[in-house]
Amino acid sequence: MAIIDTGTQQFDGLRDRMRGVVIPGDDPRYDEARQAWALAAEQHPAAVAYPVDAADVVEIVNFARAAGLRVTAQGTGHNAAAHGDRLAESILVKTSEMREVSVDPETQIARVAAGALWTDVVPVAAEHGLAALVGSSPDVGVIGYSLGGGIGYLGRKHGIATNSVTAIEIVTADGRLRRVDADNDPDLFWALRGGGGNFGVVTAMEFRVYPIDELYAGMMLWPVEDAARVYKAWRDWTETAPDEVTSMARMIQFPPLPEVPEPLQGRHMMVISAAFIGSGEAGAALLQPLRELEPEMDMFGPMPVEGLMRLHGDPEEPSSHATDHALIDELPDEAIDALVDAHGAGRGSPLMIVEIRQLGGALGRVPEGAGALEKIDAKFLAFTGGMIIDPDQAQVIERAAREAMALLAPYSRGRTYLNFAERVTNTRSAYSVETHQRLQAIKARYDADGLLHGNHRIETAAA
Ligand SMILES: Cc1cc2nc3c(=O)[nH]c(=O)nc-3n(C[C@H](O)[C@H](O)[C@H](O)COP(=O)(O)OP(=O)(O)OC[C@H]3O[C@@H](n4cnc5c(N)ncnc54)[C@H](O)[C@@H]3O)c2cc1C
Fold it and tell me: Helix 333-343 vs helix 394-406: angle between axes, to the nearest 10 degrees?
């Protein structure tokens, strides 16, 4: 292994050439700089660099190559835990100083700089009556989310976000800033859309946004004692639901905190949330079978498209959590009963949420010109986890999350969805053999020496 001098002097040459800031390991600001959104991730890179533009990124890549270091980009660090402890020889490129966003209402294309969050994009698109394929969290980074797939409440109608990407600007290992699209470096364009941050540092991205006139969305909540019957009725309802609706069913233990709405503080509930693209009248008719389950609270109604990014109620401050997930092909009664028996009423489960997302529709279809992650090949996506408030609880929550997903193993082919894989993961589990081999071949073509890496790593076949 190379001996890395992370002292200030080593990075003087880079500092002189960049407009942004470089923070090496012996800088008093290092501990703050190395922190990720996911607070449980322990990142110890050789240095943290904050480029302000693409020219800075070119300097970082050229400097790292000459210094024998590697480079990895990070928008927010929502999925920083996937790095594990493998950052010692890498410059961590934090893109938080690059947040420009614009939306062209004529072409219905949004353009964002590397560090834009969904909360930067959604209101700008909404001004033009356009909706972006945001996920459940407003402060997730657009680039990380889109390079990994991107499943949100408009997904069954408009597919995974990565398949709406139309162009990517990226600095590759040779230090070149390229504009990559269906006609320019098409193999690289294919690899980036689902292959994650392994092929360069993205400096800007363009993607389609969609006109949405009316949206009917919200949540229904029941006491968790009703979980099994609600999960099962919801599962049956999903069988015939049109692509215009995307929904999720979750058991949630709401913490007794002031930021939680008062009637829910400290309660364990069963929650269905959904978004329907269409009128309130049509939405109400569609949801009637769920209403007949007599929820304790019903918060559905017309919603502006900006509302979508907060529908789920995800945490917006950096948080410490342990999670697991599973892509599943069926959700029989036995699977629901097993989850509810283990984590339902009165079980003392350490898991804050046990969530099943409805997939299918456009999420499960391959559009023309799709990228490496061409669709999500499963009927449901299960996700579970808990907040680590006391560090001693971390392993307990992690084990409970793994065990909960193990209950679903009989209904899964063991595929992973890398955006939801928040630990070191073998990327072969996310693709077919042919797709993974093609990703490796493209990696070898653009980055034979492995200068760049993502959190979920695709190395050349030789590495
Ligand atoms: C609370 C929460 C809610 C979420 N909700 C959803 C959801 O609804 N749907 C969904 O699909 N996913 C969801 N996710 C998962 C999320 O999409 C992934 O964690 C994603 O990787 C986050 O991207 P980021 O840029 O914010 O995170 P980061 O950890 O900063 O980035 C993840 C990876 O993306 C790559 N990357 C980021 N920026 C660049 C760049 N400029 N150039 C090259 N590579 C780059 C890198 O490999 C990086 O390690 C959620 C995660 C959390 C924690």
Answer: 160
